[in-house]
Amino acid sequence: MLLILALIAIASGLFFMNLNYMYWKKRGVPGPEPTFFVGNILDNFLVKKSLADLYGEIYRKFQDARLVGIFKAGTPTLVLRDPELIKDITVKSFQNFRDNELYLDKSVDPLSGRNPFFSKGDDWKSTRVLLTPGFTSGKIKWIYPLLEEVSKNFVKYIEKQPETTNIKELCMRFTLNNVGTCAFGLDAKCFEENNPEFKQIADKYFSPVGFKNVKLLLISIIPALAKIISIKFTPKDVEVKLTNIITQTLKYREDNNIIRNDFLHIIHQLMKSHKDFTEVDATAHAAGFFGDGYETSSIAMHFFLYELAANPETQIKLREEVNKAFEENNNTLPYEEIQKMAYLDAAFSEALRLHPPLGSLNKMCTKNYTYVPKSDEIIKKSFVIEEGTPVILPLYALHRDPKYFDDPDSFKPERFLDGKKDTVKYAFLPFGEGPRACLGQRFGSLQVKIGVAYVIKNFEIFVNKKTTLPIKYDPMYFLTLPREPLWIDFKKIR
Ligand code: HEM
Q: Could you give one GO CC term from the UniProt record (predicted)?
């Protein structure tokens, strides 16, 4: 009897899953045929392709469509292909797509669960309002001397390294030192010690190791699972160490009446002025600055250095601009000057275009939205994008589309010069767009630019032959990272 019931349950499950796979067909939305149970994400599930590559393939296959219907396992999901539609969803109709799809439960993961990236609805809004004053241009300008100090020490550190270096590791030490001083007023000691505490924490926080990796892969493929199986992003020991560092620093400042105009001070003030802002909130947001502050920036910076090493002519042009800026400012690089450096800005944008640290963005429809097709479109009738439908913005694929970027696989900073005329705004969105765009864009961009400017002034850089080319992205990591490290040779300019 039990066996018969089990067979009936399996048969009904199969029946409804197949019926579900008609979801997009019924609405006239084009899309690839799903494979039973995994839908259209088999290659990511089998760790053969990164999500950036997988969505890229789907994006390229449906050239005539503004949006494509796929299935993440059994969940009907949309992949957007059209910049105008992306603008609508991220800006004009933001209220219908307010949340990111990825979800972490605050009670299971008290630190990452409070990060705005994972927060939802009004919770997200109030957190964003509270944290925004910590990221204004005034605040970023104030911390600039700290970044200058770290950059000078970075040059000395590179001088002592072997000529051939794993640049991800190198850039991570740089961004960790920046975050240590700008957020907490602490020296992360990543240039003095081989394995300082901050680096140990960082290695565990994001590193794609062991079971955590499987869990991360699972929530990036099927985010709804995070709710069901209580996934924790922050490992327990990282949570404990970060909490200790932050509470001890806060207490020290309180006891000694120390006021330092940095991110921790802003958090401290919030604790005093807002009854609902608890010590856990303070710790979570300081930890959030730490996590958000070093990894995406070190990924962006290491790809930027790689592209400069691989494109010597661009490297020479950038060095000319950097040298001129230093010469005109008494061998320093003031904040106002770095803002004016058009080639540095263009080359950074171009590196972000080729290798966006977030290869795709997962949004969530939070209120029914009626999609009205254009008259010449492959979709012929309007349909409702239902609340609860995940919507993917395939950044990597958009950034490499020849429709928007001529010769898209080449590194050509010139396309971003002269008012960025070669770019379509919503086809280039390495920091996202709209009210939920990256909160740390100013800080992230500035630390990458100053770090690269100091490197290029002091070293000629070359791709070492240990580097595996062409670059393939790691399917086991949720950010855009090469499968194999990139190796660069540094030659000191005398
Ligand atoms: C080059 C470096 C960086 C890149 C490429 C980057 C990229 C992004 C992207 C694509 C998003 C998602 C936007 C969206 O959903 O539309 C995001 C969100 C976010 N980023 Fe960054 N980021 C960088 C650096 C930073 C830094 C340095 C910080 C903080 C110190 C930071 C804090 C955040 C936060 C808090 C969010 C969530 C915003 C929200 O949902 O309201 N990011 N970032």
A: endoplasmic reticulum membrane
